[in-house]
């Protein structure tokens, strides 16, 4: 029995497919199939029922796969414990974030890399659902998303762990040349008179739809993940945008006063949280834990900018 055999059966069980497992593990389908057959022969039991629909664990297979996952997690803990004795961490950290908070990560990543130069860090901007799917498929370790109640409820039982990092609220971004720029806040009736440009994020789209349902239809000029396109449209006074306050407050371009942010005068507006999401089924590595702690500390230092 070899470690890669345990890794393969865990991946097959997670994806429900030998083909997908081979793709995720970057090995050939033949290698996965032979490894599985060899392990089944060694153990004397069938671990999966295979068909055109995929691979489903047998009753015996479910028990063995669970123990294989536990064994792999223990081995990772042993490796990390050994690293702790040498005061070094090495490996990789794979991150993904929705577009707005990217600028919040810069300081944390820079200081983390300075302290742990042997860690390879990858970061990407993606939508919330893509981040959750990448975590499920073990393509990333940590995702930064907007946390709201319906998302957490919808994700219950799917193997995710959510953690709040920073409390925020929805605000309106307008051009410094807009008549709205001379106000501290904007009412829904006033806002409905303007076109919108929006981040292509699940929560932002949900908020816009909920806003339209309560206060009347809105004209959405376009939706995109291109922050430059949104900023340019607002700066040229073609539209306004709605987003989380921390996305604007830490936006470096604001130092040139291109944009102005206004409170959204909606009664009983619920708080929104920038949150961290990871897999419940995989070991919470020392690398991921150390970075999350670093990010929490960094955000606490910045959070005063969000206060009135």
TrEMBL record:
Domain (HTH lysR-type) ranges: 1-58
Residue runs in coiled coils: 68-95
UniProt cross-references to InterPro entries, sorted A to Z: HTH-type_LysR_regulators (IPR050950), LysR_HTH_N (IPR000847), LysR_subst-bd (IPR005119), WH-like_DNA-bd_sf (IPR036388), WH_DNA-bd_sf (IPR036390)
Keywords per UniProt: Coiled coil, DNA-binding, Transcription, Transcription regulation
Pfam families, per database record: HTH_1, LysR_substrate
GO molecular function annotation: DNA binding; DNA-binding transcription factor activity
Domain of life: Bacteria
GO cellular component: cytosol
Family as reported in the entry's similarity comment: Belongs to the LysR transcriptional regulatory family.
Name listed for the protein in its UniProt record: LysR family transcriptional regulator
């Amino acid at each position: 029995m070899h470690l890669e055999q345990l890794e393969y059966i865990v991946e097959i069980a997670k994806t429900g497919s030998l083909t997908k497992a081979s793709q995720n593990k970057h090995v050939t389908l033949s290698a996965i199939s032979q490894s599985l057959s060899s392990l089944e022969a060694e153990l004397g039991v069938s671990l999966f029922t295979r068909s055109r629909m995929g691979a489903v664990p047998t009753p015996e297979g479910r028990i063995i796969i669970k123990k294989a996952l536990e064994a792999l997690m223990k081995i990772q803990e042993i490796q990390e414990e050994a690293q702790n004795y040498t005061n070094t961490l090495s490996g990789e950290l794979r991150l993904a974030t929705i577009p707005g908070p990217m600028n919040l990560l810069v300081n944390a990543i820079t200081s983390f890399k300075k302290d742990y130069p042997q860690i390879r860090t990858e970061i990407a901007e993606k939508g919330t659902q893509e981040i959750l799917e990448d975590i499920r498929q073990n393509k990333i370790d940590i995702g930064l998303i907007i946390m709201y109640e319906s998302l957490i409820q919808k994700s219950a039982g799917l193997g995710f762990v959510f953690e709040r990092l920073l409390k925020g609220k929805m605000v309106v971004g307008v051009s410094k040349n807009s008549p709205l720029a001379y106000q501290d806040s904007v009412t829904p009736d006033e806002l409905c008179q303007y076109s919108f440009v929006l981040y292509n994020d699940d929560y932002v789209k949900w908020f816009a739809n909920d806003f339209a349902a309560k206060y009347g239809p809105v004209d959405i000029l376009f939706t995109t993940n291109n922050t430059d396109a949104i900023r340019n449209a607002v700066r040229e006074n073609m539209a306004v945008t709605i987003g989380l306050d921390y996305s604007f407050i830490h936006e470096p371009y604001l130092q040139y006063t291109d944009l102005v942010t206004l409170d959204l005068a909606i009664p009983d507006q619920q708080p929104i949280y920038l949150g961290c999401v990871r897999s419940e089924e995989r070991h919470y590595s020392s690398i991921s834990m150390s970075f999350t702690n670093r990010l929490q500390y960094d955000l606490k230092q910045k959070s005063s900018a969000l206060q009135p």
